[in-house]
Amino acid sequence: MADDKRVYLFDSTLRDGAQTQGVDFSVNDKLAIAEGLDRIGLDYVEGGWPGANPTDDAFFGAPPSLKRAKFVAFGMTRRPGRSAANDPGLNALLNAKTQAVCMVGKSWDFHVDVALGISRAENVDMISESVEYAKQRSGEVMFDAEHFFDGYKANPSYALECASAAYKAGARWVVLCDTNGGTLPHEIERIVGEVTAKIPGNHLGIHCHNDTENAVANSLAAIRAGVRQVQGTLNGLGERCGNANLVSLIPSLMLKTDFKVGLNEQDLKQLTHLSRLLDERLNRAPTRSAAYVGESAFAHKGGLHVSAVEKDPRTYEHIEPSLVGNRRHIVVSDQSGRANILARFREIGLDVDADDGKVGALVETVKLREYEGYAYDGAEASFELLARRALGSVPTFFKLARFRVMDERRWNVRGDLITESEATVTLEIDGEQLMTVASGNGPVNALDGALRKALMPAYPALADMRLVDFKVRILTPQAGTEAITRVMIESADGHGERWNTVGVSPNIIDASFEALNDAITWKLLKASAS
Fold this sequence. Notes:
Layout: E1 8-11, H1 27-40, E2 44-48, H2 54-61, E3 70-76, H3 88-95, E4 100-106, H4 109-116, H5 120-137, E5 141-146, H6 148-154, H7 156-168, E6 173-178, H8 185-195, E7 204-208, H9 215-225, E8 229-232, H10 246-256, H11 265-268, H12 271-282, E9 299-300, H13 303-311, E10 329-330, H14 338-347, H15 357-372, H16 380-390, E11 399-411, E12 417-429, E13 432-440, H17 443-455, E14 466-474, E15 485-492, E16 498-505, H18 508-529
Parallel strand pairs: 1-2, 1-8, 2-3, 3-4, 4-5, 5-6, 6-7, 7-8, 9-10
Antiparallel strand pairs: 11-12, 12-13, 14-15, 15-16
EC number: 2.3.3.21
Keywords: Amino-acid biosynthesis, Branched-chain amino acid biosynthesis, Isoleucine biosynthesis, Transferase
Protein name: Citramalate synthase
């Protein structure tokens, strides 16, 4: 493949991603994410802004040892009225001693006039002098032309003058930024095409925000028009609506175009894992509908779809899921037919004859239970247990004799109003009856604690299991406080496995126990099979 097809991937998750509402990376988070990005084969990993905060200072003080990616520090051009050599911010950037630096500067005349309040000529000098000075101190210099597309639409000659100043001063990459995310793909392609007449495409980059849901499309349009570096973040993290999502861009480039990136086929297979690693570090659930890597990206629910996919996956799948480390997922619901059930059996390793009468009975059972309020398309572990029980293949790890949950709301000795929950469970394990008591910050937490206290001595595999999400839905709101509730529990373990279970009952604690019981049983079933 020709060199002019090589696209360089630049990740800004550790800086741009940190601007996401609710995201606060620790130093250890940054190290783990940077190492994951390096393993998969990205060209550049931006670590943050030296001097901006204690976390970034600590991170740059003991930087990750990257093997494939260049480690990048971010900062800004010199300030007005100072020389480049005498600007503390610029020197903090260069003192980080990274393999490359990326500095941001203004390219929209409106910002120069209003925000900086300086002459437009001085702004161009700031860009040129900063890049030239950085070239003397750093191995590779990049310039982020902030608000470039807004600036170009308002004053093309000035925006180009700013970008050209960085290029002529020695910037390896001049990155055109759609900073407010308001530009559309056809505009991006036209403007980039015009810029390449002045600056070679193999020195141009693109950085798009996602405010019109076009960041990935805009990035692809820019590459098509000639840029050869693309910036983005994992899972599209970023301020407001986020940045271009590298998790979507990478497979689109590798599998849908003739452009070349620094990843190989084995690297691409780590993509789903890397996406979920980020969510795990942020302690949030992965987006099920995420392109390429989401749990639902290759999920099939309708019976006709499943039948078609079974014959030829290309009917409803645009790529083979394993190419990005994902998997096909056959959903079981009240829309399911025999094809769904049989496909799901194969997925969980059950060898069942298609003519077995138990299959038809299970289809009817699923439809009846979903009519009662169960939802197996979001509770795959509960369905697996239902199916295995129908086939008589789930061991009895424990039997519940009874449980009791109490809540107490009172004033403590310091005069604070507190609520405490206490659960008592009586279980039978291997013929021995055990009673345990545990307290918690809520009835489900207390019940979970009591169950674990009884089960852990016999089943140490439960040690790394934890509840990561708990959802309640009222199914019959017209019944008021007597309504039937559905509880969905998501659990995870130390091996990166996640599974979902469901319980339904007019009593929310009973529904919670049902889902919790399935979650524990599924974990024990998997542990016994390994």
